[in-house]
Write a structure and sequence with these properties.
The complex is a heterodimer of chains A (762) and B (424). Chain A is of the alpha/beta class. Chain A has 24 helices and 32 strands. In chain A, the strands form 8 sheets. Chain A has a 7-stranded mixed sheet with strand order 14-13-24-23-22-15-16. A 6-stranded mixed sheet of chain A has the order 27-31-28-30-29-32. In chain A, a hairpin with a 2-residue loop joins strand 29 and strand 30. The mean pLDDT of chain A is 96. Helix content of chain B is 44%, strand content 13%. In chain B, strands 6-5-11-8-9 form a 5-stranded mixed sheet. In chain B, strands 3-2-1-4 form a 4-stranded parallel sheet, with helices on both faces. In chain B, strands 7-10 form a two-stranded antiparallel sheet. In chain B, helix 7 links the parallel strand 2 and strand 3. In chain B, helix 5 crosses helix 6, helix 15 runs antiparallel to helix 18 and helix 16 runs parallel beside helix 18. The mean pLDDT of chain B is 96. Classes of the chains: A alpha/beta (762), B alpha/beta (424). At the A-B interface, helix 2 of A face helix 15 and helix 16 of B. Bound molecules: flavin mononucleotide, iron/sulfur cluster and FE2/S2 (inorganic) cluster (FES).
């Protein structure tokens, strides 16, 4: 600790901190622009100049380390004069167009100009104008407003892992710009909006929608991945207008992924379901709640009478709240059925019997930044878990060894210590090689390197991503990862796929007594099936099969926020429910953190929170125990006892490695980031930002052996289903693999994510 | 006496060739260092005795700078020579490289030896490409003669020098911008601390000196610090090359002892051009305050004397102006330079240099207002001392100097919308 004096106050501050850190800790505000606690120090704005005793010049507080006995004056006449002078320089070329600037009301420049600026300007010359840049559909630019703080530039270099903005030109002619003619495409790009202290970078979807002070702020939790990122929903007149991060150092820090930030546009999609609907004689018509519920209840009861309770089942999206998942399983169990599941994209359930708790991250999110060595198995990390990728990048920066065993090799923007890029069919075999090395056998190649990296360091983890969890040999991958983790003293963890991938387990929304799991129900649907927030074409392992299964059911009651075309084809009753922004509820994140949130706005039209719909359904079905007054009551029943004891990644019984047979070509079916769930699939700006994703990728060898070239239209087919896509070349893909991302309408007709696939010229 | 240290062999034809440099005792100093295994501490002590001060402009004592280098630090360390010479009025370093590159190379090798460096770099201004080529040729000669490279003169010590040419940005002469530029990045000054001695080129301990500074080293090693000191005056050791330009009959580089009266230097340069009289002198390059003739004629050419007169010796670039010069026009040109050369990184310099230039330009073009003079002074003052590097100061000082001594001309311009000197 160093003892210093600031503005006459005696302070004791940690060694190595800067004057600005010390001031912040002591509640003394030093004006600043370029400084940001998560970025490197640039000291270029000069706003934070302070007077330090014995220093010949004023010093920038952000870049000046404290020293024992230092005496700092942050508001002495000299310091104030300098701060005011810098403010004047900031403003001379600034357009001062606050009345038409979206940043107005939440602009650091505006705020500080009130304190340090003058009423009029001494600058009477022509002002600089900077040609504007188009950097894509997410970020709106007004580069004349830029104050050259380089926060956006440093963000790319230091946090995003890819430098997408830079400064060109010199002096007054210098400009912040993306690579000439390029848009920014990082999955974290929206953070530059928050970082930009002025209105140079603002949200494009939010542009001119509202003034910041008109917005109602509601604390909430992001539903698009399992991290539980804390967000604030900003709404006006009952409409969600934007989402911004809510700082939580243990989870998302001050960051947010673009998916969590911009997916809200999907909440106002044109095909939102506003009224209940029923299908009679193949014709859909709107009706009131009473009618729809009566219809559904009667049909459910009749089918149960006729075929027995085992022909009743329910499927839910893992994005549903704990309350909804709990009540759904309660309805099922009340009806005498154990057929309930939320693991829609899982294909191998054979480990279920060995599970001893809910699979989870195996550690706190914050620990990820501190890992020394980690093996990632089967993950499209940046797309599926953007902020965990950011944490791992931080770890890698501090020397962590990151290894990857994957069927795809997208750049993670961090150095990899070792990697094995193999076909899905070879993943378990390769992982077994790693296990064998750790058991003392000699194996050459990538597995050897991965094992060697896992043997180093203190804090280690083996993490299974979405691709591993969807994999047809998931239980084998799980078993092998468990043995590897045990052998090298690593933690075993799962990168949960969705907001309630852990919560679903805790709510009991999966079979417990021999009932049908999601795989079984989506293969052969119960005669009466309830869907909660499920879009079979985008949310399941095998969309073609799922749609066929649902179409063959006698009754499908779909609780949905959207009037999805596939639901219109397969369902019989559509009940409009509220998405997360319109209901209270709870998510349990991948680290086991229980986070409840309130509704930000009222449900649209006649939509109702699903927990209320399920409560009524339970009552109408004359089931016991559906008299909840609030979602909090439901939660308290659903999550009794400590969560931590219910989390467990260890299988009681290990699954031995099997011999796999597979067709000539295997699909690598990752789920594209912006098609992961029903809301984000409808987020128009995100969709345009990554419009090109719909293609079939394969390596050059495969392309030429098939007589294809890049860009041609090809027909890919799986079983009955086929799709026409553009062929694209990606030499990083393993042999005999065709990467076709799932989730979008273009690939909704296809089959299993990792099943055989055929390719021919269209 | 002239040309005693740097240009001692300039009278020889092809003085830049190794054989000619060797004929005048070239590389004797290096050979002595190697043969006698002179300890680094002793060389630094000699440099301190010599009162050699940095010839790049700031006049920082070289011996002291060398003593900051953590020579025991394991791993790579560098010596970097600054031949970026981009300030208006300076043109000495290019002549050193052109006429006596080996003395610079010898100085750099001795510096490398003294500072425990593993390699040296010479950053050469982009607009003097022929100097870059000549320096490369000299490096080849030195390598072929085993004066440079592996196992220098059989000593078992390896040291090589790399030439690097810039693209002509003035700011790349600032030592940390220069390092960034060598690293392949945009030439923008770094915030200091950390100083190059602890975090320099590629993050390694680095010592940066001006061309003339390093080219003075062989003399000091060969003849001792005391002898060098005596060529000049106390605290201002050695000879200095003065680049005299402007309204003189014989503009050019003059290497003379520090402390020589300005009068004598002016005479060497052939005096003010015929039929005219001296109005003012910018004694140290475009960044330093102007000094009126009557003050200048009483000064000696050394750091301390010029500083006492409120200006700076800088890089010894003497810009002579006769009575035909309009100071408003002169300042317009100077301010334009700094406006164009600001790197744009920090606010006061990026915004302030443009402001200064535009106001001066307005005054020059008959659109001045009375309040402009105070405004200029205040804007310059607001830049001073508040920027990341000294380019901001370099832009502000000429403005303040001009207003201090020639305010009447600016007032006349503003009031009468015409020039006091030319009348139009
Ligand atoms: C804007 C700017 C330009 C500079 N240009 C040069 C230059 O061209 N040559 C030079 O030797 N020093 C230049 N300097 C000074 C260097 O930063 C540094 O002080 C010098 O190279 C150190 O060498 P010395 O101690 O031998 O003088 C410049 C400084 C500034 C702020
Ligand atoms: S665009 Fe914004 S964040 Fe980027 S340098 Fe300019 S002011 Fe800073
Ligand atoms: S905040 Fe310190 S210089 Fe910008």
């Amino acid at each position: 600790m160093a003892n210093i004096e600031m503005d006459g106050k005696a302070l004791s501050v940690p060694d190595g901190s800067t004057v600005i850190d010390a001031a912040d800790a002591a509640g003394i505000y030093i004006p600043r622009f370029c400084y940001h606690k998560k970025l490197s120090v640039a000291a270029n704005c000069r706003m934070c100049l302070v007077e330090v005793e014995k220093a010949p010049k004023l010093l920038p507080a952000c870049a000046t380390p404290v020293m024992e006995g230092m005496k700092v004056q942050t508001r002495s006449p000299k310091a104030l004069a300098a701060q005011k002078a810098v403010m004047e320089f900031m403003l001379i070329n600034h357009p001062l167009d606050c009345p038409i600037c979206d940043q107005g009301g939440e602009c650091q420049l505006q705020d500080l100009a009130v304190g340090y600026g003058k009423g009029g300007s001494r600058y009477q010359e022509e002002k600089r104008v900077v040609l504007n840049k188009n950097i894509g559909p997410l970020i709106s630019t007004d580069m004349t407003r830029c104050i050259h703080c380089t926060r956006c530039v440093r963000f790319g270099q230091e946090i995003g892992g890819i430098m997408e903005m830079g400064q060109i030109g010199r002096g007054e002619h210098s400009e912040i710009t993306p690579f000439l003619g390029h848009a920014v495409s990082s999955e974290l790009s929206g953070n530059m909006i928050d970082l930009c202290p002025v209105g140079a970078l603002t949200s494009k979807p939010f542009r001119y929608k509202a003034r910041s002070w008109e917005l109602k702020h509601t604390a909430s939790v992001a539903p698009h991945d399992s991290l539980g990122s804390n967000i604030e929903i900003h709404s006006k007149n009952g409409t969600v207008l934007r989402v911004v991060p809510r700082e939580n150092e243990e989870i998302n820090q001050c960051w947010l992924s673009d998916r969590d930030r911009f997916a809200y546009e999907g909440l106002a999609a044109k095909d939102r379901l506003r009224r209940p609907m029923i299908k009679q004689n193949d014709v859909w018509r709107e009706c009131d709640w009473q009618y729809a519920l009566d219809f559904a209840v009667h049909a459910l009861q009749a089918l149960k009478e006729k075929h027995g309770a085992q022909q009743v089942g329910a499927l839910a999206t893992p994005q549903a709240t704990v309350e909804e998942l709990f009540l759904l399983q309660k309805v099922m169990r009340g009806m005498g059925s154990d057929n309930v599941d939320f693991r829609l994209r899982q294909s191998d359930f054979s480990a279920d019997a060995g599970l001893q708790g809910a699979p989870w991250l195996g550690m706190a999110v914050a620990e990820v930044s501190k890992l020394d060595s980690v093996l990632l198995v089967g993950t499209n990390l940046r797309a599926d878990h953007p902020l965990l990728a950011l944490r791992l990048r931080q770890a890698a920066k501090h020397g962590a060894r990151v290894s990857l065993l994957n069927p795809l090799d997208d750049d993670l923007f961090m150095p990899l210590a070792a990697k094995a890029i193999v076909s899905p069919a070879a993943m378990a075999e390769t992982l077994d090689q790693v296990r064998r090395v750790l058991a003392g056998e000699t194996v050459s190649g990538d597995a050897q390197k991965i094992a060697a990296n896992l043997q180093q360091g203190e804090s280690k983890a083996v993490l299974l991503g979405n691709l591993a969890q969807h994999h047809p040999q998931f239980s084998e991958l799980h078993s092998l990862a468990q043995q590897i983790a045990a052998a090298c003293g690593a933690k075993l963890g799962f990168l949960g796929e969705s907001a309630n991938s852990v919560g679903g387990y805790l709510a009991g929304a999966l079979p417990a007594a021999g009932g049908l799991n999601a795989g079984a129900m989506l293969n052969n649907a119960p005669k009466a099936t309830i869907l909660l927030g499920v879009e079979p074409e985008g949310d399941t392992y095998n969309p073609a099969q799922a749609m066929a299964a649902l179409r063959s059911a006698d009754l499908v009651v779909a609780l949905s926020a959207y009037k999805s075309p596939t639901l219109l084809k397969s369902a019989d009753v559509l009940l409009p429910i509220a998405p997360f922004s319109e209901t209270s509820g709870t998510f349990v994140s991948t680290e086991g953190r229980v986070q409840s949130f309130a509704a930000a706005v009222k449900p649209l039209g006649e939509a109702r929170p699903a927990w209320k719909v399920l409560r009524v359904l339970g009552n109408l079905l004359a089931l016991d125990g559906f008299d909840y007054d609030s979602s909090e009551q439901v939660r308290d029943v659903a999550l009794t006892g400590a969560v931590s004891v219910k989390l467990n990644n260890t299988l009681k019984t290990l699954k031995p490695l099997s011999k796999v047979t597979h067709g000539a070509l295997q699909r690598v079916g990752d789920v594209s980031a912006y098609h992961a769930d029903a809301i984000v699939r409808r987020a128009t700006s995100l969709q345009t930002s990554h419009a090109a994703a719909n293609n079939a990728r394969m390596n050059g060898a495969l392309l030429s052996s098939l007589g294809l070239c890049e860009g041609v239209l090809i027909k890919v087919s799986q079983g009955e289903g086929s799709a026409e896509l553009k062929a694209a070349r990606d030499d990083k893909l393993p042999d005999a693999c065709v990467r076709v991302a799932a989730g979008s309408a273009a690939t909704a007709t296809l089959g299993g994510l990792f099943d055989e696939i055929k390719v021919e010229r269209a | 006496m002239a040309n005693e240290v740097i240009f001692h062999s300039i009278h020889l034809p092809e003085s830049w060739k190794l054989e000619n440099y060797l004929k005048t005792g070239g590389y004797d100093a290096l050979k002595k260092v190697i043969a006698e295994k002179i300890p680094a501490e002793e060389i630094i002590a000699q440099v301190k005795t010599s009162a050699l001060r940095g010839r790049g402009g700031a006049g920082f004592p070289t011996g002291l700078k060398w003593s900051f280098m953590p020579r025991q630090f394991p791993g790579d360390k560098y010596v970097v020579c600054n031949t970026d010479e981009g300030e208006p009025g300076t043109f000495k370093d290019k002549d050193i490289v052109r006429f006596n590159p080996h003395q610079l190379i010898e100085g750099m090798i001795i510096a490398g030896y003294t500072l425990g460096a593993t390699a040296g770099y010479n950053y050469i201004h982009g607009e003097i490409f022929e100097c870059y080529e000549r320096f490369e040729a000299a490096l080849d000669e030195a390598r072929a003669a085993n004066l440079l490279g592996k196992n220098i003169l059989g000593s078992g010590w390896d040291f090589d020098i790399h030439a690097h040419h810039g693209y002509g940005a003035y700011v790349c002469g600032e030592e940390t911008a220069l390092l960034e530029s060598i690293e392949g990045k945009k030439g923008q000054p770094r915030f200091k601390p950390p100083f190059p001695a602890s975090f320099g080129l590629y993050g390694k301990p680095t010592t940066i000196n001006n061309t003339e500074t390093l080219a003075s080293i062989p003399y000091i090693v060969k003849h001792g610090g005391q002898k060098f000191l005596e060529l000049g005056k106390p605290n201002n050791g050695g000879t200095k090359i003065f680049s005299v330009s402007g309204h003189v009959n014989k503009p050019g580089n003059y290497e003379i002892g520090m402390g020589t009266p300005f009068k004598d230097l002016l005479e060497m340069a052939g005096g003010v051009r015929d039929g005219h009289k001296l109005k003012a002198v910018i004694p140290g390059g475009s960044s330093v305050p102007v000094v009126p003739a009557e003050i200048m004629m009483d000064l000696t050419m050394d750091y301390d004397s010029i500083a006492k007169a409120g200006s700076m010796l800088g890089a010894g670039s003497v810009i002579v102006m006769d009575e035909t010069v309009c100071m408003v026009k002169a300042l317009e040109r100077l301010s334009y330079f700094y406006f164009e050369e600001s790197c744009g990184q920090c606010t006061p310099c990026r915004e302030g240099t443009g402001w200064l230039y535009r106001v001066v330009q307005r005054i020059e073009h008959g659109e001045g207002r009375q309040e402009d003079l105070d405004l200029l002074d205040s804007v310059a003052g607001n830049i001073m001392g508040r920027t990341i590097c000294a380019l901001g100061d370099a832009a502000a000082m000429p403005v303040q100097g001009m207003l201090k001594h020639y305010r009447d001309e600016f007032e006349y311009h503003s009031k009468h919308k015409k020039c006091m000197v030319s009348g139009v």
